[in-house]
Every structure is written in structure tokens, then in C-alpha cells.
Amino acid sequence: MTATEIHIGLQLPALELPPITRTTLALFAGASGDHNPIHIDIDFARKAGMADVFAHGMLVMAYLGRLLSNWLPQPRLRAFNARFAGITHLGHRIRCGGTVTEILERDGERLARIELQAVNQYGESKILGDALVAI
């Protein structure tokens, strides 16, 4: 995508993921090194008051990162921030989206600010964030 094609209001192509499974969580735990038992051990999760294990927040943030790098090459990413807004349970299907909300210049570089959101199939926000990308 060229700089002239990027404008305020532009919607990034959505990224839709398959449902979260125990396998997804186990693979992410191995890849990330985050073996917190709340995400992989049902007995531990229940003792903590949860009905079952749930996704790592960083897994869903990684999905937002994939949304960005599917849209523009990763070296153009200048900043990436996220706020965890809800628990992602087993079976949730995550949909990531973004909207260009600002075009700015910083240190002689033209940038676009992207508002990001990851929601489940019920429209519940799981992660809200923003990113700055060079355009």
C-alpha cells in the first residue's frame, strides 16, 4: 500500500482467527515461554475461581501484531500499545481490526496512527490499542 492510499478513516483488512483451543494455548505457552498454569491447567484455573483456562493476553496482542504486519511490512512499525479489556475464553473466535485515525509527521517521518481492537464473536472487546506506522 502506498502512502497516498493511506488516509484517515481507512479500515485495515480484518484478521479473523479460528476458535481458541487448549492446543492454541499450549502452543503459545511453548512459543512465548509463558507457562502460567492459569492458561494451561484446568485444575489450577478452577482453584483460582475460573470455570476453565483462558488465553494469554499476549496471544491476542500478537494477533493484533499480525494484523499490522499483514497490512504493512514489520520494519515500518514505530510503536504498538495495548490495553487488555477482557478475558478471552476457550472457543472465542477473535476478530482483529484497525482504523487509521491520524496522519502526522514526527522527526521528518510521515506516520499513521492506527486504532486497534480485538473482539470475540459476541462483539466484546478483548484488547484495545494503537500503533504508529511509517507511511
TrEMBL record:
MaoC-like domain: residues covered: 19-104
Domain of life: Bacteria
InterPro entries: HotDog_dom_sf, MaoC-like_dom
SUPFAM superfamilies: Thioesterase/thiol ester dehydrase-isomerase
Pfam families, A to Z: MaoC_dehydratas (PF01575)
PANTHER family, sorted: (3R)-HYDROXYACYL-ACP DEHYDRATASE SUBUNIT HADB (PTHR43841:SF3), 3-HYDROXYACYL-THIOESTER DEHYDRATASE HTDX-RELATED (PTHR43841)
Name listed for the protein in its UniProt record: Acyl dehydratase
Species annotation: Solimonas aquatica
